Amino acid sequence: MKVLVTGSAGFIGSAVSIRLLERGDKVIGIDNHNNYYDPKLKESRLQRHNNHENYTHLRIDLENRSAMEEVFEKHKPQSVINMAAQAGVRYSIENPLTYIDSNIVGFAH
C-alpha cells in the first residue's frame, strides 16, 4: 500500500513511517521542518528511513494547497495518516492563529 504520512519527521510520524516501511508499505513522508524544536532532531529521525527504497521525503508545508494537490496528483497515495501538528501548549496560547493555520487549515488541504 502507498501511504502518505504527514509530520513524518516528528516523534510519532517518524515511528509510524518506520512501522509502515517494516510492514512493506511505500511511504511518502511530508514535514515542513519548522524550528519549534531543534531541526537536528528531525534530521536525526529521518536518517532511519531516508535511505529506505520505499520511502520518499518531501519538505512541504501542509498549508501550501497547490503543493499538496501536486503531491496527491504525482504520488497517488492510497491512504493518509495525519501526524502533522504544530506542537507546544504555551506557544499555542500566545500564537493561536499559527495553530489554526497549521493544525486545521493544513489538515483540510
From TrEMBL:
User: By its UniProt entry, which PANTHER family does this protein fall under?
Assistant: EPIMERASE-RELATED
Keywords annotated in UniProt: NAD
**Which protein are we looking at?**
NAD(P)-binding domain-containing protein
Q: Which SUPFAM superfamilies match?
A: NAD(P)-binding Rossmann-fold domains
All residue ranges annotated as the NAD(P)-binding domain in the record: 4-108
Native organism: marine metagenome
InterPro entries attached to this UniProt entry: NAD(P)-bd_dom, NAD(P)-bd_dom_sf
